[in-house]
Amino acid sequence: MIAPEQKRLEELALRAAYTGGPAFTRFLEPSMLDAARGAANRAGAHAAFYGGFEEAERRVAAFYADEPPAPEDYPLAVLRIDWNDRFNHPGHRDLLGAAMGLGLERETLGDIAPGARDGAPCAYLFCLADVAGYICANLASAGRATVKVSVETGAPNILPPEGERLRLTVQNERLDAVLAAACRLSRAEAQRLIAAGLVKLNHVPNLRADARLREGDLISARGLGRVRVEEFLGESRRGRRVVSAFRYRG
After folding, report:
1. Residues 6+ positions from 59 with CB-CB distance below 8 Å
2. Answer CATH for 163-248 from 3.40.1410.10, 3.10.290.10, 3.40.50.1000, 3.40.50.150
3. Confidence of residue 1 (pLDDT cuts 50, 70, 90)
4. Selecting from 2.80.10, 2.60.120, 3.30.1370, 3.30.1920, what CATH number does the domain 4-64 have?
């Protein structure tokens, strides 16, 4: 039996193919992007994705029938969340929890990215355009901080992610090898985490320690954070693979 989420993707892709106009989803989890591509292929349509900024993980899919370029007018809004940093600094969980506390469905909200305005910290919330006004009118606090929400009309000043860039040397490009090196684990410890279902590869649980990684892959290990494989840099003098990676903080 087809899942409701998959059925909706199939319907939107077919609509775009038959009407010729674009059809947009709500925000998709990263693990659903391949499902959207598959739905587009089966319908004879195209699929493009946008989450408001280049590094966004949650994205809206646009199905369209014509040849590229893809539609540009996605039904998204960018909200800037400001607070007085002298008193409180709400974290990502505080901000997301406050937005969800308004009774919104998760699919109406995209990523929350850290930013700055006039030297003061802020956050940018990407959402569907039809809930933007409601959020601005009702979101007044996050955690212990009093916040003010407004529609950002210019380009958001998103800060780069916090973390550390790593240069790893591993035996091969296997998931267990890179996870062990990035998180300072033994190879056996990394394998146990993977076998226990505590590791995701590109947001999907992965039980294969021997899964081969590619540039751009994201590894998530419960309790250990996230690591992005950036580039394979060739071999060291001892014949080991050199990997450039980024380990996110928090």
Report:
1. 27, 28, 30, 33, 49, 50, 51, 110
2. 3.10.290.10
3. low
4. 3.30.1370
Least confident of 34-43, 87-96, 191-200: 87-96
User: Please, what is the Cα angle at 45 between 39 and 107, to 5 degrees?
Assistant: 50
**Residue 113 · residue 79 · CB < 8 Å:** no
Backbone angles phi, psi at 178, to 5 degrees: -70, -40
Q: Is the dihedral of CA 195, 196, 200, 205 positive or negative?
A: positive
Q: List pLDDT tens digits, range 29-56.
A: 988 999 999 999 999 999 999 999 988 9
Q: Output the pTM of the full model.
A: 0.82
- 76-151 CATH fold: Alpha-Beta Plaits (3.30.70)
How confident is the prediction for the chain on average, in pLDDT? 92
Instruction: Compute the distance between CA of residue 99 and CA of residue 126 in angstroms, rounded to an integer.
Output: 11
Judge whether 41 and 30 are in contact, CB under 8 Å.
Answer: no
CA distance 116 to 46: 36
